[in-house]
Each structure stands twice: as structure tokens, then as C-alpha cells.
Specification:
- By secondary structure, the chain is an all-alpha fold.
- The protein has 13 helices and no strands.
- The N and C termini lie far apart (75 Å).
Length: 229
Amino acid sequence: TLSLHDALPIFSWMNPNEFERALAEGKEFLEKNEYDKAEACFEKAKQDKKTYSKACAYLGQIQKVKTDLDGAAKLYEDGLDSNQMHFRCLNGLYQTYFQQNRIEDAYRILKEIVVNFPENPERLAAAVYLAVKTDNFKDIEVYYSVFDLMTQKTPDSVKHLCSALSVAGHYHLRQKNTIQAMLSFERALTLSLGEERYVQYIIERLGALGLKKECTRLLEQFGIAKKAA
């Protein structure tokens, strides 16, 4: 027998309050490109805490259509102030920052998305690319852990991660952190199945620092018949 407590969510869905109705109506107007009417509905939906972040996200979408990127960013930020893990606000803010060429800010938000909503190989590839572009090499290991747990892995995400791990290994070498560098190189070779370009890159980087023993050990570990530089 369904208790009253169990039935409350069903009743709520069947009888939405005025703010939920405003949100639904706004989405209908938005689909018809009736932006002024949609905006009025979403402004009403902002008055309730439960629909606030969703309303901000849709209002941000409208501001982007109007090419007001600053206004859009502010709305997404407001939505995240209310719910810091609201996906639509996070994704909207990331894309808006990227359009504004605020690459550091865009990367910061994208990292939040990838870590908390990991099952998207395209977003992971973008995060890996931006981590290298913004010199956040230490984050590559975070993305390796995310990738390792993913059920869906695309060739493109593998390629981006292998490249990033190789570059991160070089970064760690420059920081005189040989242990971490070798771990990054090992992971790059494991994921790439010993692909030639990664092998050559690693040989050159280790050889340039005179780490021939480390290079030979790594090549032998993967059964690669090459000589250390």
C-alpha cells in the first residue's frame, strides 16, 4: 500500500506549484524562440529556491542568444551560488567563459564538470587539452583517474590523454620529480600500447637529461626494442 509520504512526490509532479509551472511555460516559449515571454516566466521561477538555479540557467541561455555574454555569465554564476553542482549552470558558464576567451576560468569550471559528471569522453578530452594549455599539468593525473573509471572510452579521448601524460611527464622531469615523471610516461605507453610517437617523445626527453638507465628500464618494461638516446 502506498503511504501518504511515498505519494507526496507523485502529487507534487501532478500538481506543480506556480513557480514550477512558470518554469515549464518558460521552456515552451523558449522552444518557440519567444524570448521575452520566456524571460518573464523564468524571472518568476527565480522567486522560488527550488527552481532558482534552473531559471538562472535558462535566463543565461537567453542572454547568450542576445549576445550578452557578461549578462549570461552573471546569471550562471548566480545559479551556482544557489546550487554549486547545477549541471546546466556549470556547462553554460564554462561555454560562456570560453567564448569570452577567459580560458583560465573556463578550465576551472570544466574541471568541476569532469570530476563531478565524468561519463563524457568529449568533455574529458577538452579538459585534458585545456589543462595542458593553462599549464595545469598536475591535474592530468586526476583526469587519468577519471578516465580509468569511465565505461565509455573513445579513441580521441585516449589520444588526448596519452599526449597530455607525455607532456606532464616532461613537466615533472623539469621539476626534478623523476618518480612522478616515470609514472606519467608509463601510463602514456600503457594507454597508447607503445605507440611510436609517444615512445620517441619519451626517449628524447629522458635522453636530454641523461636518464639513460631510466629510459632503458622503461623500454624493457614494455618490450620495446629501442636504444636510449
